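Below is how a single chain appears once it has passed through the pipeline. First comes the sequence as given, then the structure the pipeline wrote out for it. We keep one example in the README because the format questions we get most often are answered faster by looking than by reading.
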Amino acid sequence: MADISAGNVKELRERTGAGFMDCKNALVEAEGDLEKATAILRERGLAAAAKKSSREARDGLVSSYIHTGGRVGVLIEVNCETDFVARTDEFQKLVRDLAIQVAGLAPLYVDETAIPADQLEARKAELLADPATQKKPENVRPQIVEGQLKKWFAQVCLLDQPFRDEDRTVRDLITEKIATIGENIVVRRFTRYALGEDL
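Resulting structure:
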């Protein structure tokens, strides 16, 4: 059994946000390897987050963000299960980070389920009619359209966008927060305003 130092446990806690005993147990299981312990905690967190995702989230925050210079503003509603969690610094920071994401990358929808069916069908038809797609064999065109749709979702859907310059998506960030905070978290809606837009 590897010798687990308090410093290693502290470092793992800072990396993952998991509890002290969870970090210690993961380090013991990973025989002191920080990378393996991080992977173990992430896997456990994702499993825990999946269980929590079906729970109802009716509390939370409505927050605003005005970008420097006052040219872009965002109003966002993010829900959690209790007002206790809604008042924590960690949840409030998450809501602010999400508002900044909306201001910067201008998504149109929370996720693909929020895209109106007629717009989704029109986009599929447009991708299928694309000359580059039409040059491909007929049996692979549906896969090409699906791949192009995923790229489009990463542009127009908040949860599918990459979070800042990281490899993870906004959905991954929220899943990690569900695991560390211990409550279901749902981005309910947002509105983005840009000065002079649609004039």
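The mean pLDDT is 87.

See the next section for the split statistics.
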